[in-house]
Amino acid sequence: MESIRPLDAIFRPASVALIGASSTPGKLSYDILYNLIHAGFTGPIYPVNPKADEILGLRAYPAIGATPTPADMAVVVIPARMVVGAVEECGKAGVKSAVVITGGFAEAGAEGEKLQAQLAKAGREHGVRLVGPNCQGVNIPYSGLCASWPLITTRGRIAFISQSGTVGAALIDWASVEHLGFSGFVSLGNRADVDESDCIHYFNDDPNTKVIACYIEGVKRPAAFLEALRQAAKPVVILKSGRTARGRVAAESHTKSLAGSDEIYQAIFRKYGVVRADSLEELYDFAKGLAYLDRPAGKRLLFISSSGGAAILGIDEAEKYGLEVPFPPEELKARLRAFLPAHCGLTNPIDLTGDAITDPGLYSKTIAEAKSDYDTSVVIFGDPVHGASDIVTGKGELVVFCGGAEVEREEALKMHQKGIPVYPTPERGVRALAQFFAHEEVKPRAAEAHGKADGGGPRLRLMPAPAAVRLLRSYRIPAVTAAPAGSAAEAVKLARRFTRPVALKVVSPDISHKTDAGGVALGIAPSGVRKAWEAMMATIRKKAPGARIEGVTISPMAAPGGVEVILGIARDPQYGATMLFGLGGIFAEIYRDVQLCLLPASPGDFERMIAGIKGYPILAGARGRAPKDIAALVDVMGRLAKIADDYPGFDQIDLNPVIVYEKGVSVVDYRILHK
User: Fold this and answer.
1) Domains of the chain
2) Which of 16, 100, 419, 584 can pair with 132 through a Cys bridge, CB separation 3.0 to 4.6 Å?
3) Which spans in 560-629 are helix H?
4) How far is CA 357 from CA 362, 363, 411, in A?
5) Distance (Å, rounded) from C-alpha 643 to C-alpha 652?
6) Measured in Å, how far apart are the chain's first and last C-alpha atoms?
7) Model's pTM, two decimal places?
């Protein structure tokens, strides 16, 4: 990992300078200097301020070039207009990195963007790696480094990477309050240089980090981000904001509309085994669980509780996430009856009732007896159980403490100090445990090339149906004939060539949802083609008055007995080609029951896409129906992916519907848009 080794100067500097150090309490540059001094940093600290001789007991220097030896890292807290010059001076003085706290750059508008570009250029030209600008700094407890605020020094196993300083600070504060701590915190700010990809790489190699937790709003370098996720050997938990439709670009096709930006990130996270959090609370809970819980050998849970209600809440959550809550075997029940009061429940949960408050040994004995029969004991303290921290070991246990006020806080703190994570509600604990099983697929092993689509350029063109069908068939994709007709008379003539009723579908580069525009007529006999043509054109003129109409296609109706699905390719401006799969009709359009996969992909990826939709039982043969030809469908998906790879100028490909039969598939309609 030679490319990231310079980050050692940021996360493990031997010496630190603070440019803009202040002697005025309450100023940010005073607070950061105070934190640098009191966090346990053992190397030289150089305050830089031309108007001071001494600050906080340390000799001050008039310029970065005046320090006795070059600092590994400079923390910059001076007005924005002075920052570029300061970074240039850092480079000349031999400083390897700079954390730019100062704001007023890209976040401030056009002039700020220009200034940030100058800053990035200065860093590149002078060999100074940059964090920020407009950031909350860096905090690495194992290095004794707190170039940030507040002063937090508790060591732990979680590295927090955040594009928001406030979000990141909240997480490290939670971890410190619970005495679980963290291995590192970096606030990326505007990411003029160092970004989320660099940091994931770095903390993946950091021996003190067990889990990498990230808050991201966007990705600066898509290819580097994917490579960082591919190489990550440690769990990566990501909270990605900007999920709603408000930020989506208007769709140009079925696939494009269904493959919104968030769906693409979901596909990326699924492919690379990223644990996705939906809130700050989940980001912390999931990272905490993956860092401190033992990985369960299986999904079998036994709930042991003094509160039946709390246990039921946990069981509901477990079932939601596919975890198993089997009844105890009779042998275990017999062993439990030997010491538990007769009124205790012996199903699952094991309800110890209020007796466990006065006799906490009921917990320890039950946990010991159940270890051999279950993968995880979910131990719920629903009352003020004194000595709870002496009962649990953290081995094969998920601990929930949801009652007891002061006792709860005292006992939970003792458990955290032992490295045993405690959750305040059963639902939060079970959700965290479930993340061990969220992505069990094998991550891609070989390096992959990820194409990048051009977000701009000329208006897309629609490939004529005869050319589209020839292309698909050349890749051995079974597409039905779709003959183009430019007039009603031509449509009637073509329809007479087929032995079955025909389908009429409008040809227009401006109409992606043909049915909504009235551009589809099905099961039409040759004698009814002219009437269907005229009715179609009249409807389209009303519903899509500005659309360019090139005519219709005439194709034979598909054989009955199959299941309609949709396959598509869309090119994301950042991540390139993605494949979409879902059931056809309302299932994809209304219920958004679709799966996405970033290309390139393997047959196993395609199989998981198919199995991942809610409508999968329809394909698998639900309610006594014959299963459909999944193998043939996977084969078509692979061939479609090959087209996307061979033709990067194809922006959108819709195969909709594709009919899957008991044996074989048939591509009934297709739409290819290219540059």
Assistant:
1) 2-150+178-241 (3.40.50.720), 290-437 (3.40.50.261), 481-556 (3.30.1490.20), 563-674 (3.30.470.20)
2) 100
3) 586-589, 603-612, 616-620
4) 9, 10, 14
5) 11
6) 38
7) 0.83
